[in-house]
Each structure stands twice: as structure tokens, then as C-alpha cells.
Amino acid sequence: MKDTRKKSGTLAETVAAAYLTDKGVRILQRNFRCRFGEIDLIGWDGTVYLIVEVKFRSSAGQGEPAEAVDFRKQHRICLAFDYFRMKEHLDDYVPVRFDVIEIDRYQRCHWIRNAFEYHGL
Length: 121
Fold this sequence. Notes:
Elements: H1 2-22, E1 26-34, E2 37-44, E3 49-56, H2 71-87, E4 96-103, E5 109-116
Parallel strand pairs: 3-4
Antiparallel strand pairs: 1-2, 2-3, 4-5
């Protein structure tokens, strides 16, 4: 089951990356991992860094995908972004937005811009 979930997640991230690319976003990195957490997609839309969490649900009975991005998950994403920012030598004032892309079983994307605010240190 875990292997199936991983494959579904990888497919969802591929679908989301293609969707964002079609919308003019340049994908800078996929699956950025560090000891603080993971960022599914890091993109640049020409004015702001996009930190994107991708959520897939195979059925409506599991609830809305974005509901799984709770405060704890948001905090871990923000900590991972802080590490990314440090690693890439970006200053504290770099423009950033935290988005969620929900993907349903038909591979339809729903892009939630500004899904949550920064919850850093």
C-alpha cells in the first residue's frame, strides 16, 4: 500500500508540475528534502518563489486534499523553505508564496494560491 501511495504521489507531483509549467511557472526543484521536512515543488513565476504542496485524493470520501495540510505540515514546509533559502543564499525578504495544488482521481488540478502564511522560526 505504501508503494502504491508513493507512486500516486509521484504521479500527482508530475501532473502538478506540468500544470504549473503550462501556467508559466518555472519549476526549480521537485521533492526538496532536508531534515526539517519536504517541499513537493519549488517554482518561480517571475516575481515570487512558489512553495507548493501537492495533495492527491482518489475518492471524495477522504475529504478535500487541502485539509491534509494542517498547521503542523505547514510549519514543516516553512522550516524546509528556511533551509532552502539558506542553502541557496537567498535573503530573508525574498518574495515567497505557499500554495497547494489538489489533484483528483481524474488528474484535474485545483490551484489554491496563498493557501497558508509563513510559519517559521
